[in-house]
Structure formats: structure tokens, C-alpha cells
Amino acid sequence: MAQPDTKKIFFENLSGAGKAIAVLTSGGDAQGMNAAVRAVVRMGIYVGAKVYLIHEGYQGMVDGGENIKEATWEGVSSMLQVGGTVIGSARCKDFRSHEGRLKAAHNLVRHGITNLCVIGGDGSLTGANLFREEWSGLLAELVEQGLIEADAVQKYSALHIVGMVGSIDNDFCGTDMTIGTDSALHRIIEVVDAIMTTAQSHQRTFVLEVMGRHCGYLALVSALACGADWVFFPEMPPEDGWEDNMCQKLSENRADKKRLNIIIVAEGAIDCRNKAITPDYIKDLVVGRLGLDTRVTILGHVQRGGTPSAFDRILASRMGVEAVVALLEASADTPACVVSLVGNEAVRLPLMECVQITQEVQKAMDEKNFDEAVRLRGRSFEHNLSTYRLLASRKADSELPNSSFNVAVLNVGAPAAGMNAAVRSAVRVGITEGHKMFAVNDGFEGFHKGQIKEIKWGDVGGWTGQGGSLLGTKRTLPGKHLDKIAEQMRIHNINALLVIGGFEAYMGLLELSSARDKYSEFCVPMVMIPATVSNNIPGSDLSIGSDTALNAITDTCDRIKQSASGTKRRVFIIETMGGYCGYLATVGGLAAGADAVYIFEEPFDIRDLQTNVEHLTHKMKTSIQRGLVLRNENCNENFTTDFIYQLYSEEGRGVFDCRKNILGHMQQGGAPSPFDRNFGTKVAAKAIQWITRMLKESYKGGIVFANSEESVCLLGMRRRAMVFQPLAQLQGETDFVHRIPKDQWWLKLRPVMKILAKYKIDYDVSESGQLEHVTQVRPKESDFSACI
């Protein structure tokens, strides 16, 4: 575990005593808003501030009275898993008028509120900024009208604003993801997966309309995540003649024995002449020209509903805590800021810079400058679009470049949801690049047995949404079979390797690269993509499969907590997977609202267990009469799940009773989440492009020869970008005994989890985002976002 940094600035320096913070949700609702409200309330109370909930958005601020209520710790319990916004949201005409804002200012001053946290879209945030700019003038008017005392102007002289973007459309520039987008993608993909089974049965074509009047993010990413045949969205209007091209592609797919077609349309889709493209128009086109049985499904407000995904709960909780820190650090001249996600980091950006760029997107689209609109949308949107374009068009064999290179793909380690999406993407991008692609069944074990065959474009159709590993995967390491593997590489003339897997894949590639002196067959470009539910691979903040596992943990914890709401005074001890890595337990605990999480990386003793029991005993005296404790499977060899269960049962006797639950392999199963499908698709495409580049560089004298450190890489997400890192350099960052990285980014989320569970601890704010500018956030063109 990383040693404490002596330069850390702890939160006691930023007291909220004597301050009042208000939080409101405005505009369209989005799943995860409640998690953000909960985080703001609890963090605010933790630092000693008064926190108020403003009900019904800006309308409640204008109307005042019962709409502005002081929040309590217990009052925001059970909000985490609820969709929508429990404090209400409303479109407010009154706040657009000067008189309305004057009433709102009066209501805030009455409660001593000078810190406002707004969760909404760009319209809501723009309104908040205008309110801030007018604040001193509004107070002066209130004094003139005799509604407030003159000394109140000095006392409440500055209004501090921090925004969080809640919008399912992901249409706000400056952040890779807005609160609610991932949950909306879950709803869309759930529907698509369900529709695919009925479409396949009847050989039907389905046209699905998804939300996105001005932004095509949901349409684009859901098309990537389900392998749709065609997609329409505002930022990429099709050229004249698109009807012929689409019908030709659909008929080619049917000729390839594909039993269904999926077409996704954003509600704001247009053609290059600005004419709306509707689902019914597409249906009539397909029926009229091809005679295919076609159905239309309009998803509508289903996309706004349901429980928030694990991603949205974590995102909203992180942003809520960061928003309170930003409010406490704000001075009179600090501009209104918005808390954003860039890559894997929370950052603060000037609110009006983000709003201005968001408005420039619409201006670019009105001027039909669609390339500029895509650029302004940000790197996440750009990379989704470039990956979609790579995978969308299947070229005829005669049009493909002939590279004469053979590339093998294999899965190694335990299965992880999203592996199949990565394989599909790798195969299709490889074929597009002109390579001959080979699939290796059952990992390195199948490799040495010769279970290798060429894999074609059509062989990976429909793989995106499938869980597990269709290629088959084993934990076997190559070390004992180097002769046979080298022989198979020689037989099949394999010029490059793409290995998708967990810690065994990492170890396996290290073994192959260290044997290069003895076997020239291993002197080829090799790249690894991390795919493991444990998320324990050095060199990457995230792994394919971990998001799906987190959602499985979160869903189960929600059900378990619900069962406790009837019985009362019950504590659940839940064991998660992860080996020695506490990622699933910690982040799952944050998403599920756990009271305690035990992990290997943070050693604990019997005194800590006693403290946790006392904490739960105290909690049972409040209105929240249930507890949730997560334990990583290898957190401590003596404090087992049974031991902790028995200890809690004994110490809590007469106060609460206990139940235990071992989640086991359900965390590895199920259909991959939209995040894992998209992450797998994008990183595999990126990996194949790297292989192509390396093959060209290392092809000399009719053979491929690559034996430098840089020719064996891991493609991982590091903070704000995707980077290729030589495995040799990652060895120093690895704890090989416990199969974890020595430094793990998610450990900084543990204090957030503890604060939200009402533990009094130090909170390090040295890494809290300093105010940046939007232009600085965009990395170099060579960088690559992993956030969907």
C-alpha cells in the first residue's frame, strides 16, 4: 500500500461551520441525481455546514416556504438506489424573470444560504450563473424594499455556485460522462438484448428510436454496444443516396445468413439536407425496397427510468463530495464551476466555458459544420465515432489492403464480461487493416495443443452482447509449453499476438518475452488488454469485466437491503471476489451504500472490527435500522467471512441480528454492461491499430522481427488517457505475490465511502481538482479516452 504523503492537506482546514449549502435538481431528471444529492448532504453535514434541500428545482427556490428544508443525515438514506430525483424537478418560467430571481434571493438569505449546488443540464447551470452575477444587485434591491437588513448585504455578499451535470443525453461539453448517461444506456441495451431474441426468431428488422434531440451520444454508443447494422444521429447526417447504401448493407447481411437487423435512430436524426429521419420512414423504406418484416420500437421515457447503474452512483457520489470541497474552497472572485469527469479523474471547469462550447456545438450543426460539432463534443465522442466508422463498413475482399500478416487473438485467465466484444472488434478491425486473423481456443493451453483456426468477419457476428468467453479461456501459463507454442506460431506463421485477459495473461506475456533469446518465434509484436472482474492489472485503472461485476454486486446489495427494510435491525455480511484486490469490495461498497468494507490493501485488526460493530449499534438507534458490510475474499486469512459474521452476531446480540452472503461466480456471469461492451470494443480496435503500426516498423527482409521492450505492451487506462506501456517497465509496479499493482487509484475513494457512512476520518483534499480550462483538459490527439 502507498505510504502516506507528508504534503497532504486534510479536510479539517476547510471547515463548513457557520456556512449553509443548498442543493437542487433542475431540468429533466436523470438516474444518479439522488446519489449526488445524498453525497452533497452527507459531505456538507460532515464538514459542519447546514445543508438545505430545495424541492421542485428553481420553482421551489422562488416559492420558498416548505420547498426549502434543512436536510438530515437519515433523511437521505435509501436514496442511492432510487431513479429520478426525490426532491423533484420542474421547468421554471418565474426564475427567468428578474422578479422571480429577486424572490429566490430573498428565500436564500432568509436561510443564510450562500452556497448553491445545482444538478441539471446546461440551461439550469446557465440560470445559476446569471443568478450569481446578479446577486449583489438583488441584495441591494431587497434592502431598498425593506425585506432584509442592510448588514445582510455584507454578511451574504457572495453567492458561490458549483454545478454537476445531470443529463441522460451526455450533451454537455467538458465532461466525458454526465450523471444518468450510463443508466440510460443500460435501459437501451436491456431493450435491444430482449428485442434481439424475438427478432432472431422471426428474421425481423427492428428500428429503435432512442433519445437525443440535439446529441447523438446515446444512439452512437448503443449502436457500438449492440453491434447495430446502421445508426442515425444529428452529428453525422448521411449523404444523399444513404437509402440505397443502407438497403444494400441490410440485404448483404441477410445473404450472410444473419437472421436479424437492428437500426438505431436518435430522435433528432437528420439527413444532409436537414430533413428529419424518422423510424417510420426507415421502416417504410426497408419494407418497400427489401420486403423485410420490420417493426418500430420507440423507447421514450423508459430511458430516464429505473435504478441508477453502479457507474452513475459512483460518479454522482464522487462529484457530490468534490462539489462540497469546491464550495468551501471558493472565494468571492471564484467563477461558478462545474465538476466534471475527464478520463478517470474528477476535475473542476469554469461553468460558462463549458456552456459556451456546448452552445457552439449547436451553432456548428446549424451551419452544417458537422466535423467541427464532433470535435467540440470532446474526445470521448470523437473516439466512439471513429471506432464505429472502423467497424461499420465491411469492405469487399478485393478492396482490402493485403498486409500478408497473421495475427492471433486469445483469451487467458478467468472469463470476464466484455471479452467477446473485444475479440469481435479485434477480428473485424484486423480484417479491415488487411491482416489474416486467427482465433486461439482455451488460452495458452489451446495454443500449445494447436487449437488455432482462421476467424472471419461473419464468425464474430452477435458476439458483443454475449457474456463469458466464446473462444474459451484457461489459467494455464505458457512457461511449461514454450516449445509447443513456438512450433504452433511457426506452423501458422503468427506475426503478432493480442492477448485479452487477467493476471495470467500479464504473467504469460512476461514469460513469452523473457524467452525471446531462445525462441525467435516470440520476437513479434505482442499486446495485452486487461480483462478481469478483479481489476488487478498494473498499468490500467480499469479492466474489461469489472463494471459488469460491480453492477452484479450493486443489484444484489440493493435486493438484500430491501429485504432488511421489512425485518429491521439486520446487518448483512457480503463476500465479494477480487483475489487480494479490494476494488470490487470498495467501489461496490460505495455504489451500494455500505457501512464498512474490509480489504487486503488496508490492514485491519480486532479493534477496527469492534469500532465497526459499535458504529452499527449506534446506527440501529436511528431510523436507518439496517447495515451492509462487504468483505473482499482474501482481505485477511484469519478474519474470515464466518469469523466476522460470528463476531457481529455475538457483539450485536439484542441490538441487531446478522446474515451472510457469498456472491461467488455470479460476479463473473451475465451479459456485459454497456460500459464493458464499449470499453472492450474501443481498446481492441486501438490495440489492433498499434499491432499494424508495429508490424510495419518491424518487417524487414521478408520477416517480422521485434525484440525491443516496446514491442510487448499493455494497453491500459491511466488517469486521463489510454496508453501503451512496455510490460518490462510495469514489473516494478507489481506485487507478484498478491497479484496486485503496488499503487491503486481507487484507494482514494475509500475515505469518500467512509464519510458517506458517517465515520469521522481525515479526508485528503490535496488531489481535489484545481480550476482548469476546457482547452487544457483535451489531451494530445494520440491520447485516447476509455470513458464511454
Automatic annotation (TrEMBL):
Transmembrane segments: none annotated. Residues 1-393 are annotated as: N-terminal catalytic PFK domain 1. GO terms for molecular function: 6-phosphofructokinase activity; AMP binding; ATP binding; fructose-6-phosphate binding; identical protein binding; metal ion binding; monosaccharide binding. Allosterically activated by ADP, AMP, or fructose 2,6-bisphosphate, and allosterically inhibited by ATP or citrate. PROSITE patterns: PHOSPHOFRUCTOKINASE. Its EC number is 2.7.1.11. It catalyses: beta-D-fructose 6-phosphate + ATP = beta-D-fructose 1,6-bisphosphate + ADP + H(+). ATP binds at residues 28, 91-92, 121-124. Substrate binds at residues 167-169, 204, 211-213, 267, 295, 301-304. Mg(2+) binds at residue 122. Pathway: Carbohydrate degradation; glycolysis; D-glyceraldehyde 3-phosphate and glycerone phosphate from D-glucose: step 3/4. Homo- and heterotetramers. Catalyzes the phosphorylation of D-fructose 6-phosphate to fructose 1,6-bisphosphate by ATP, the first committing step of glycolysis. This is ATP-dependent 6-phosphofructokinase. The lineage of its organism: Eukaryota, Metazoa, Chordata, Craniata, Vertebrata.
